[in-house]
Amino acid sequence: MFKHTLIASTLVVAALASAQSMAAIVGGGSTLPMALYTTPGVFAVGFAPYIGVGSGTGKVAFLSNDATRLNLAAGTKVDYAASDSILSAGEISTYQAEHLAPGVPTSSPDNWGPLLQFPSAATSVTIPYNKAGTTNLSLTSEQLCVALSSNNGAVRTWGEVLGTSDTTPVRVVFRSDSSGTSEILTRHLSNRCAWLFTTVSSTFVNAQAGTKPVSWIGVRSDAAVASTVATTAGAIGYAGPENLDATNNAVVARINGLLPAVGNVVTALSNIAPPATAVDRADLTKWAPVLPNPASGYPIVGYTYFIFNQCHRSPTDLNSVRIFLAKHYNAVFTSSNDQEIINKKLIPLTAAWKTAIRNTFIPVTSAQGLNNPNVCNGIGRPL
């Protein structure tokens, strides 16, 4: 009897835990802001622990409601994605065809409502390196293109990069998964060196043609890039600022004379304003600005984004998302996540951006507001 009771109790606990997991707001994606999103108190009550799997995988998990992409049990709902890779035209059109009217009637549970996309924080992409005898590496954008590019499968040398006789091989440490960090980087490299980086891609090896040297090292997180470069002679890579000292020229390279220090990143992004008209606010691509080659400041910069649905079938989930957005974008510093953003070496949004996001996405009366009844009547993210 005791054994049967114990088994029954265990099954009840497991069922409750499973139900709690199903009810929580589940999401993940980018590893660049992972240290921020795993900090206690950053997300609101009701959010499950953040899962870092890379921007591309996080977007797929959300857009297809496929929790297995987050290494969770099939059938667990996915409520948001965090990504440094913006939604592509293809991703948007596929989602709209599969989850919006007129292709999907409002009576269908597959009608999830419009997508929302907006920045969470600003970031740089730093260039960590490990070159014996060098503690002040400074590269132009064009030299960086050479260092990070393949030479028809042949290994490039540091002498080739710097115009010296140094025969030390360059070992590139790159993200092997679909990564927003790769997308921000290749957007800049493609702008400056289109003959080497022929396209912008969240998959680094797809941004350039040709066979890649076997000595290159692929890893699956920004933290792994930073640690691998630090322990690999002759290495160079790219990573967000969370996992290294972006103010130390012995750790990261200057690009066009500048380190990825906060002031240099703020300068680069200073002229980007949020959507100001009703038409632009209704266009989710306008909420994802890109800057391939800033006129001033550190040149490899961007944002890390959130992707949510406007419509939610669960009132509990809706309330938790509203509470989170109200805090994350709060105008009062001490009532927001800004200090944690700074602690994790990211940069809070400007007051103009935070105001625009609060006023556009939180009020139910806003055209893009969460659960606006004129948009979300009976439709929304799956329960």
UniProtKB/TrEMBL annotation:
<dbReference type="InterPro" id="IPR024370">
    <property type="entry name" value="PBP_domain"/>
</dbReference>
<feature type="signal peptide">
    <location>
        <begin position="1"/>
        <end position="23"/>
    </location>
</feature>
<feature type="domain" description="PBP">
    <location>
        <begin position="50"/>
        <end position="323"/>
    </location>
</feature>
<dbReference type="InterPro" id="IPR050962">
    <property type="entry name" value="Phosphate-bind_PstS"/>
</dbReference>
<keyword id="KW-0732">Signal</keyword>
<dbReference type="Pfam" id="PF12849">
    <property type="entry name" value="PBP_like_2"/>
</dbReference>
<protein>
    <recommendedName>
        <fullName>PBP domain-containing protein</fullName>
    </recommendedName>
</protein>
<comment type="similarity">
    <text>Belongs to the PstS family.</text>
</comment>
